[in-house]
Design goal:
The protein is built from 10 helices and 4 strands, in the order αααααββαααβααβ. It is mainly α and 358 residues long. α3 packs antiparallel against α4 and α9 crosses α10. The longest helix is centred in the first third of the chain and has 30 residues. It is elongated and about 110 Å long. 20% of the residues are buried.
């Protein structure tokens, strides 16, 4: 790989940076976002790695060397153009005059579209790096040679797939001494039993994940931390609860109504009673034209569902209108609960009992 190809790669990266630095009059530069800077540095480092590996691959080629040298410049030029195009397109998506801010509230200057495009470029470059590494490994002849299959030793236990996965081996009495680590505690000896490879890789992954997570949540603030996620979840749950209670309140009828004891419900029922029922029943429920609602006698039943039904449908032959068009089911339940709450209050000038005693 000649120096001109490396210059083309460096030029492609540098020419993409102004696309992020430029913006409209009201659009901040995406380069001011720490996430964009980190991603651009990673992209530049991977491009440099691709250039170095490409040069090493070209040096390892004994056949078609001249042809590969000619094609390498064209290939790297195409990669540079593709990277430049992707970066520029993400910058144009962010610096649009009509959308100066990102749709995602957790991203500051870097738009969500730009973030995913930059990550896609990094993934593509990683794939190229891995491909070059395998090609170089093949060319220089450093592939691991397959070891010849070991002859089966009579009497030796067969290694299962689980032992292969965990990189463990069965230890018998003959080989136990070789695996002894020299630590003896109350007759319990420590043998050489290393941690499985999958556990080590998983542990390494959690460390990398923790670093990335800490950077995004506590440094760049490009993603919510646990407290912010909890607050968002609680707000969403509160909205869902309010919506559910709103729908549930409209499903109350005379079959499922229950007595409300909350002070707020009783106060709301009292206000409706004074405004709408006092002309016939008195402000204290003592009875005027209508019956006394504080004694033990009821014309149409004194249970909560019976009081609710009487208010809802009214009593047309006695001049009481239906209130179901004026109040919601929740309000009817509040009104019925208030009437039940004044039972036995014995207000002055109470009307004589009417109906049956309950």
């Amino acid at each position: 790989m000649n120096k001109q190809c490396i210059k083309l790669l460096a030029g492609s990266l540098l020419c993409s940076i102004p696309a992020f630095a430029e913006g409209g009059a009201n659009a901040p530069s995406e380069l001011s976002d720490p996430v964009a800077l980190v991603l651009l540095v990673v992209i530049g480092g991977l491009l440099l790695a691709i250039a170095v590996l490409g040069n090493a691959v070209m040096g390892a080629m004994d056949i078609f060397r001249e042809k590969m040298k000619k094609d390498a410049g064209k290939t790297l030029l195409v990669i540079g153009i593709v990277v430049t195009t992707l970066m520029s397109s993400s910058a144009f998506a962010q610096t649009s005059a009509t959308a100066p801010a990102a749709a995602n509230p957790y991203f500051s200057h870097l738009s969500q579209t730009s973030f995913y495009i930059l990550v896609s470029v990094i993934v593509l470059e990683l794939a190229v790096v891995i491909s070059l590494l395998f090609l170089l490994r093949f060319l220089v002849g450093i592939q691991r040679k397959r070891k010849p299959a070991k002859a089966v030793v009579p009497g030796k236990p067969k290694v299962s797939w689980m032992e292969k996965l965990n990189n463990t081996k069965t230890v018998d009495a003959a080989s136990e001494e070789n695996e002894d680590m020299g630590h003896n505690f109350d007759g319990i000896r420590e043998l050489n039993n290393p941690t499985p490879p999958w556990w080590k890789w998983g542990f390494a992954f959690t460390i990398c994940f923790g670093i990335v997570y800490f950077w995004r949540t506590e440094i760049s603030h490009s993603a919510p931390n646990q407290l912010e996620e909890l607050a968002a979840a609680e707000a969403k749950a509160a909205e869902s609860k309010a919506e559910y209670l709103k729908k549930a309140a409209n499903k109350i009828d005379e079959n499922n109504v229950t007595l409300l004891t909350d002070a707020g419900d009783i106060t709301a029922g009292q206000k409706m009673f004074i405004s709408n029922c006092a002309p016939c029943h008195g402000p204290q429920g003592q009875g005027v034209v209508g019956p006394n609602l504080t004694d033990d006698y009821w014309l149409h039943g004194g249970k909560i569902n019976e009081v609710f039904k009487t208010i809802k449908y009214g009593v047309a032959d006695k001049g009481m209108k239906s209130w179901q068009e004026d109040f919601s089911p929740k309000q009817l339940a509040q009104l019925a609960s208030f009437i039940k709450s004044i039972h036995g209050s014995n207000p002055p000038n109470g009307k004589e009992p009417q109906g049956q005693k309950e």
